[in-house]
UniProtKB/TrEMBL annotation, chain A:
PROSITE patterns: ABC_TRANSPORTER_1, ABC_TRANSPORTER_2. CDD domains: ABC_NikE_OppD_transporters. PANTHER family: D,D-DIPEPTIDE TRANSPORT ATP-BINDING PROTEIN DDPF-RELATED, TRANSPORT ATP-BINDING PROTEIN. Belongs to the ABC transporter superfamily. This is Dipeptide/oligopeptide/nickel ABC transporter ATP-binding protein. Pfam families: ABC_tran (PF00005), oligo_HPY (PF08352).
Automatic annotation (TrEMBL), chain B:
It is a multi-pass membrane protein. The chain crosses the membrane at residues 9-30, 111-133, 145-171, 191-211, 296-321. Belongs to the binding-protein-dependent transport system permease family. Gene3D superfamilies: MetI-like. GO terms for cellular component: plasma membrane. It comes from Micromonospora acroterricola. Pfam families: BPD_transp_1, BPD_transp_1_N. One of its GO terms (biological process) is transmembrane transport. Its main location: membrane. The keyword Transport applies. It is found in: Cell membrane. Residues 109-318 form the ABC transmembrane type-1 domain. Keywords: Cell membrane, Membrane, Transmembrane, Transmembrane helix, Transport. This is ABC transporter permease.
UniProtKB/TrEMBL annotation, chain C:
Pfam families: BPD_transp_1, OppC_N. Residues 120-322 form the ABC transmembrane type-1 domain. It comes from Micromonospora acroterricola. Belongs to the binding-protein-dependent transport system permease family. GO terms for biological process: transmembrane transport. This is ABC transporter permease.
Amino acid sequence: MTDEPLLRVRGLTKHFPVRQGLRATGLVRAVDGLDFDVRPGETLGLVGESGCGKTTTGRMLVRLLEPTAGTIEFAGRDITHAGRRELRPLRQDLQIIFQDPYASLNPRHTVGRIVAMPLQVNGIKPPGGVKARVQELLELVGLNPEHYNRYPHEFSGGQRQRIGIARALALRPKLIVADEPVSALDVSIQAQVVNLLRDLQRDLGLAFVFIAHDLAVVRHFCQRVAVMYLGRIVEIGDRADIYERPQHPYTRALLSAIPDVTRLGPAGRIRLSGDVPTPLDPPSGCRFRTRCWKARDICATEEPALVPRDGGDQATACHFPEVAGATEAIVEEVSR
Amino acid sequence: MSRFLIKRLFSATLTLFAVSVLTFLMFFALPRDPVTGMCPKNCNPERLERVRDDLGLNDPLVSQYAGYMKGIVTGRDLGSAQGGRCDAPCLGWSYVTNEAVSDTIARVLPVTLSIVIPAAILWLLLGVGLGMVSALRRGTWLDRMAIGFSLTGASLQLYFVGAVLLLVFVYNLRLLPVPSYTSIFDNPAKWASGLVLAWVALAFLFSAIYARLSRAQMLETLSEDFVRTARAKGLAKPTVYGRHALRAAITPVVTIAGLDVGGALGGTVITETTFGIQGLGRTAVDAVRSGDLPTIMATVLIAAVFVVMANVLVDLLYAAIDPRVRLR
Amino acid sequence: MSLSPVEGVALAEIESGTGSGGPGVKGVVGRSPGQLAWLRLRRDRTAMVSGALLVFFLLLGLAAPLIEMAYGVGPREQFQKLLDGFGMPLGYAGGVTGDHWFGLEPGLGRDIFIRLIYGLRTSLFIAFAAALITATIGIVLGALAGYLGGWLDAVINWITDLTLAMPFLIIALALTPTLTLRFYGERGQVSSAFGVGVLIAVFAIFGWTSTARLVRGQVIALREREFVEAAKASGAGLGHMLFRQLLPNIWAPILVSFSLAVPQFITSEAALSFIGVGLSDETPSFGRMIYRSLDFLQTDPAYVFFPGITIFALVFAFNLFGDALRDALDPKSSR
């Protein structure tokens, strides 16, 4: 593993104009200035509530959406606004797995055609032939290679997601954006698919941007975790740091919401009051302040920067980061 | 709502403008001298030239068009050969019929209206009623009869149905007079008896299409959740079907009906030809046959106006039936 | 378009695998949605009967010269001797005899049966050609409008509205002689092929809107689906997106609309010939026969009935088949 990042994202922003008739009446700030890196072979988890901009981020990374501002560098090349032709060589290194295994496979194509599609559109003829490569891929994701002539409707949700994974692997990518790859699956199937992804990551040395709202799955799969709230990263760091020493109140609240059989009762649970504010008109200063129990005047006026704490890898965007060991006090404070 | 209306009216005007330009180009720019059709067979060159001058055919195309449009809006002077002053809406002068085109239109438009409006009422009532009943009585002999009727009707040709009706009711049974037009204000009984065959023929064919469409729509609506919810809530069948389902099922029918009625008002060419009634459609056909350009232009424009107006009306009706449309 | 030769090879390679391969492969070959629809169609008796009737009509049309040879009468032959002094056919039901199955035309004394056979040929050819051309135009414009959206969508939509606002019959009526003049001049002898061509062209100009609207709606419903995005994320071009990803998913409604468009064009052709557009009297056609026959409605009703019933049977068979096809392709839709 080198220190040179495979993916370098700086100030990534996506604003959707809201139109009424021909006039633009507002902007949805879906993603508002993200900075993060992904090193080769590394898995970065992107977590947050629904509507926080995770999926938008994923789509921008594979250039399904055009960023409003910021830069995306992949393998040292700026691909922020690259056209289809310039992207072609990079497509092979950068693929995506979708959330809905029912919508992500063309119902009129056989599995063989679906998995071979990336090869076709890029005009790649693998040695040994397309069919051999497709069967190899199906085997790799744990499907019967003889099933290449079947249609998607003949498969279960978990199998379909494996087909989607095989398609993403067809071009031997270096980075895969996985957009909630297991959240549409039954819990019992989720573990199998996540384990498959982990095996593939280890065996093929893949880097992942793993988008999820399920913190348990992310903990299982990701080496680094970025927590998003309302289009911003509020905290980013190594898995151990985030899960064991969360410094941002929001991370803390999210973690406390994980059902934990070892700790019974509501004691450890932080209940956030109110709803997520609308991204049409996000709060000034710190975006989390409207629901934060620590909010002071400064939070409304000054936006906290994402700065590393304790000289480590963990960075938090908060004026009053959590101090290790103070958790119990907070819980007490909130529950009062 | 008013903004929605303004937007629709604006795009309708734009469409009409384009239709007028296209029609103008089509007939005046194609390599057929309009004058040859307008003057009797043995025209001498001087006379042809004079007619061309009278018509302004030697002017550039743009100014011809501008003159034509100005005539429609404010009226214009056409010169003594064309009846002098022509008041708005001036549609030009026809050398074939030797009258102002607007007078021709004023004469034949009531004929087409008299054919289409009663026929449309008849076909909508019959078609939608039949479709609803057969949807509610799905699978019964009544339903099968309705399906058979609509399939047959949709495959029949108007001129054939018209011919059969004429043969039976006029020539063999002698129950009805030979179809003709009398003004409803002069003699309503004669008006009705002269046109009833045209109404029946049109209504027969169109109601078949509407029965099919409304049956399919109704069946689809009946299987939807909100209808089931309304039934489960304990609402009486007539309330559910009448108020909830009908409202949802009728919207696509309204769209098609608007377009059909609009199109029919622009001239029921086949009906008028079959029954020998001189309405807009027959007038247009005659105008084409005799190369009567001003009349062709006028009939095409009027037909387009009806279609476009029907479109706007349908959109407004839609907005009235389905409040979500207004938001767009 | 990204339909590179390599892509073709890759496709062929994948699809050639059907039925071959290792032992036990047969058991796992899946049924495509198309095969399932075909099976449903095969089980539908109405579809089979109307389909057989259509095939019969098609064969009649295709074999018209053969039938003429077997029947022994040509479409332009006149049998004046079999008409009375007023030009009316002698005998019953418009002169039906063993030699002239459907009788003779009053006035010219031409054989109605063989003219109907040739009229069938003309009508079917025009209807199929027009349906193919309009479907192609409609698919391309509709798919482009639906997939690309934006100003292109707005423009195509507006052109659709404009086309719908033009009174089809009147413009066709006015345009045909003008076009004929342009190509043949005042006195030129117009060939019947030209008349047929003009009719098809007029249908092509006015007939594409419904397919375009249909395809546009379907493409809009599909374009946000993730399999479309997957192709885009792999770098697929416009051609691949439209023809490989989107169209295979909407061929069912297209096929249904095609099967219902053919009888519409048959009807329209007859209607246009009826008001005297396009085909000259030389070319046998349904509409012209009915138009001529209306003058003899009282004196020779059989002349009206034979062509009228034939068109009805043909259009009826097409409509029945189209309905059955819709049921087979979309089992959820209710009849």
